[in-house]
Specification:
The protein contains five helices and 15 strands. It is of the alpha+beta class. It has a single domain, classed as Creatine Amidinohydrolase (Alpha-Beta Complex), CATH 3.90.230.10. A hairpin with a 2-residue loop joins strand 14 (245-250) and strand 15 (253-256). Helix 1 runs antiparallel to helix 2. Bound molecules: magnesium ion (MG) (2 copies).
């Protein structure tokens, strides 16, 4: 069932979103070679609890940490560990969720560490931009599939670093975005691609909140889950990127609840916001 929130409920989601957005900014600034992913988890817990919020991942279906940390060929759901040392050249996806008065925020970034190969940086750029293109395609009265189409068509429009050797972007299909509100994962599912017989999906209305989260691999889109039951990796070992934001819609356009600036800068640049006033 799709949950439609009141303005007061969306205001609580904005509070949760700001906790997530500020926590991810702290983590992005902190990431450095020699740290462990458990160090990042400790920073996240202090940040989230320090703002009076609850880390939503902790205990979610038994998940043992506050954030997911997915390094290089890990796509999503990696578990922070004191044994996982971050090295220069890595790309690390950090996924974070927080709850304020029962309402959720959920967002992720992939951060380059030190000296990173250009093809990996391009993977990050394309994945992050596809997230913003997806959100920018959403408007009141539009349809859910507008988001999926915009994400996929942007990724497909971007030359792959190894196109000459037959390389192409692997858009992950097994894991998708979602509605969000009083639960982290709600209907509807937000696909990062358009399937052959995919319905256009529900109308985008006020009070709907969605977490959009493209996952793109530098190689094949094929995934598998490690023996820990959580960590999703690329089957071919190629690196992967993941970016996510939670957003809602206003008459002006999308409002990105997990972006500290509400998405103003990126969405204005894409022409997705009505002029204020
Ligand atoms: Mg997430
Ligand atoms: Mg999510």
């Amino acid at each position: 069932m799709i949950q439609i929130k009141t303005d007061a409920e969306i205001a609580l989601m904005r509070q949760a979103g700001l906790v997530v957005g500020r926590t991810l900014e702290k983590l992005r600034a902190a990431v450095a070679p020699g740290m462990t992913t458990a160090d990042l988890d400790a920073i996240a817990e202090e940040s989230i609890r320090g703002e009076g919020a609850i880390p939503s991942f902790q205990g979610y279906r038994g998940f043992p940490a506050c954030i997911c940390t997915s390094v290089n060929s890990e796509i999503v759901h990696g578990i922070p560990s004191a044994k996982a040392v971050i090295r220069s050249g890595d790309v690390i996806s950090i996924d974070c969720g927080a709850i304020v008065e029962g309402y959720h925020g959920d967002a992720a970034v992939t951060v380059p560490v030190g000296d990173v190969q250009p093809d990996r940086l391009e993977l990050l750029r394309v994945t992050e931009e596809s997230l913003w293109r997806g959100i920018a395609a959403a408007s009141l009265g539009g349809r859910l599939i507008d988001i999926s189409r915009s994400i996929e068509s942007y990724i497909r429009s971007q030359p792959h670093p190894r196109a000459a050797a037959g390389g192409s972007w692997g858009i992950v299909e097994e894991y998708v975005g979602h509605g969000i509100g009083t639960e982290m994962h709600q209907d509807p599912q937000v696909y990062n691609y358009v399937g052959r017989r995919m319905a256009k999906g529900p109308e985008l209305v006020r009070g709907l909140a969605l977490a959009v989260e493209p996952m793109v691999n530098l190689g094949s889109r094929a995934t598998r889950v490690l023996e820990d039951g959580w960590t999703v990796v690329t089957q071919d070992g190629a690196p992967s990127a993941h970016f996510e934001h939670t957003f809602t819609l206003t008459e002006r356009g999308p409002w990105v609840l997990t972006a500290v600036d509400g998405g103003e800068a990126r969405l204005s640049a894409l022409g997705a916001l009505q002029a204020a006033g």
